[in-house]
């Protein structure tokens, strides 16, 4: 299949690609024939490796059959609808700040901002030590978890247009904050979430299939103990490439 080819070969014209693939197949067959002629197919270690490869292939084939229905477009769209419905609306805010080195300086800034006609952006450009001061201290929009906790807690508790009445201390210094606006964040679209949804569905499907198969199997140990849990089958695993229609 084309997707199994190295990236640099996928876009080659068929007239150039087919001879290369044919030559590769002939070489592989010749090597296998030579190995059989030397009796390597009867070597104990080789036979053990073949059995392991066979078992791994069977495991992967079974698990893929189990999870394939979970990876269809219909199933993934249904999963997206369910997650979007269950998720509470997320909010983000836009804030500006003035950063100074001491509490006394921050309180002096607050006093200055209370004067009639005071311009927050102008004061920020003049007094803030933050690199964003040239933009009037505007931090843009951010969601919960994007900023350090002390700053975030104070900013999200404010109303649009409000300036903090007390300085907020963080590891960077002392902040005076003005909340500019709040808005609801639209949930990510299906197209934006599709690959993450596929990975989640794949992992959950494999884990559920493994648990069901283990529960149905009779596992005994000669030492009388409980059967050990096998290493995760998901280590490094990824869902098969999407079949777009």
Describe the structure.
By secondary structure, the chain is of the alpha+beta class. Helix content is 49%, strand content 13%. A four-stranded antiparallel sheet has the order 2-1-4-3. A hairpin with a 2-residue loop joins strand 3 and strand 4 (173-185). Helix 3 (44-67) crosses helix 8 (190-216) and helix 4 crosses helix 8. It is elongated, with a radius of gyration of 31 Å. The two termini are 17 Å apart.
Topology diagram in text:
Layout: H1 7-10, H2 14-37, H3 44-67, H4 73-86, E1 90-100, H5 103-113, H6 120-127, E2 138-143, H7 149-156, E3 168-170, E4 173-185, H8 190-216
Antiparallel strand pairs: 1-2, 1-4, 3-4
Distance linking N and C termini: 17 Å
- Rg, Cα atoms, Å: 31 Å
Instruction: Report the count of strand segments.
Output: 4
- Catalogue the unreliable spans: none
Strand and helix order: HHHHEHHEHEEH
Summarize the main sheet: 4 strands, antiparallel
Across the major sheet, the strand order is 2-1-4-3
What is the residue-mean pLDDT, rounded to a whole number?
87
State which percent range the strand residues make up: 5-15%
- Which outline best applies? elongated
What is the helix content? 40-55%
Briefly note the structural class of the backbone.
alpha+beta
Instruction: Report the total helices.
Output: 8
């Amino acid at each position: 299949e084309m997707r199994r080819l190295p990236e640099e070969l996928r876009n080659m014209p068929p007239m150039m690609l087919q001879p290369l693939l044919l030559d590769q197949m002939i070489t592989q067959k010749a090597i296998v024939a030579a190995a059989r002629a030397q009796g390597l197919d009867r070597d104990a270690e080789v036979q053990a490796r073949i059995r392991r490869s066979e078992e791994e292939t069977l495991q992967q084939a079974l698990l893929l059959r189990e999870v394939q229905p979970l990876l269809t477009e219909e199933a993934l769209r249904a999963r997206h609808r369910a997650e979007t419905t269950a998720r509470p609306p997320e909010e983000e805010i836009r804030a500006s700040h003035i950063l100074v080195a001491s509490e006394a300086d921050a309180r002096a800034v607050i006093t200055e901002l209370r004067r009639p006609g005071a311009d927050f952006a102008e004061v920020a450009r003049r007094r803030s030590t933050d690199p964003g001061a040239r933009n009037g201290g505007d931090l843009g929009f951010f969601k919960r978890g994007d900023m350090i906790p002390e700053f975030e807690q104070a900013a999200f508790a404010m109303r649009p247009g409000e300036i903090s009445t007390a300085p907020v201390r963080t590891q960077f210094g002392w902040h005076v904050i003005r909340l500019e606006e709040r808005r609801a964040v639209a949930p990510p679209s299906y197209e934006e979430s599709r690959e993450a949804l596929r990975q989640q569905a794949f992992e959950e499907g494999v884990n559920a299939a493994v648990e069901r198969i283990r529960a149905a199997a009779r596992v005994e140990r000669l030492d009388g103990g409980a059967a050990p849990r096998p290493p995760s089958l998901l280590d490094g695993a990824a869902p098969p490439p999407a079949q777009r229609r």
